[in-house]
Amino acid sequence: MLDLLLQGGVVVDGSGAPAARRDVGVVDGRIVEVGSGGDEAKRTIDADGLVVAPGFIDLHSHYDAQLFWDPTLSPSPLHGVTTAVSGNCGLTLAPAAPGDRDFLTRLLSRVEAIPVEALLAGVTYEWESFAELLDVIEAKPLALNIGFMVGHSAIRRAVMGPAASTDKASPEQIEAMRVVLGAALAAGGFGFSTANVATQVDGDGRPTPPNLADPSEFIALAAECGLHPGTSIEFIPGSFLSGFSDDDIELMADMSAAANRHLNWNTLLINRAV
After folding, report:
1. Which of its termini does the chain have fewer beta carbons within 10 Å around, N or C?
2. Please, what is the end-to-end C-alpha distance for the chain in angstroms?
3. Could you tell me which residues come within 8 angstroms of residue 18 by beta carbon, excluding any fewer than 6 positions away?
4. Would you place residue 227 in the very low, low, confident or very high pLDDT band (cuts 50, 70, 90)?
5. 212 pLDDT exceeds 70?
6. pLDDT tens digits, residue range 52-75?
7. What count of other Cβ atoms lies within 10 Å of the Cβ of residue 57?
């Protein structure tokens, strides 16, 4: 007997096959049949007139803080999202030494237009390392599956302190960043995220830390992803607002090649001429 039968819906399975009216049977939380049905089920849902499809994966979200006061991660589930990837644009709340927490909180607030009062009230830092952050989140009953990129701003701040917002990194500091990133990826980070967009500033109005990085830093951190199977890179280059410059295209290609990974620049652009 099936645990659940979704009956009479139009199935769009994501394979590229045409949509078709089918029944979907579920046992122990897994789809066991897609067809004409006929089996008995403990629970039947009439899906007539509805589309039955796999959940959507949102590759670019910023639920890093919201998940602490909103376990539903609204409004994503209302749009069919079942998996979200957070920690994009180089913005994560780990690694977070006690002296860096105010900086990271106000940085996320400023870039993502989240009221800092909400962050201060909703986020209680119970971690320092990225691994410890994942342990805290793992214990929470969230409505969605969620994974996290490892943010460049937090990595740079962890190694360089306040100089992360003012100085170029030395070769030794870049190597130290690779160590921090490697530990976070080994703990379960999905990959490396960064952005050097001039319009993104921290809580004090200064450019975000990756804006101070030179190409060698971006490439070295991307290369670290190549040592961790299944990881990826997310990068919002400074020129994306007006089209990609030749220098940014070259940097993105070099980062992808160094990591042997896809590079994702998942940002929407507004065309006011349309």
Report:
1. C
2. 54
3. none
4. very high
5. yes
6. 999 999 999 999 999 999 999 999
7. 13
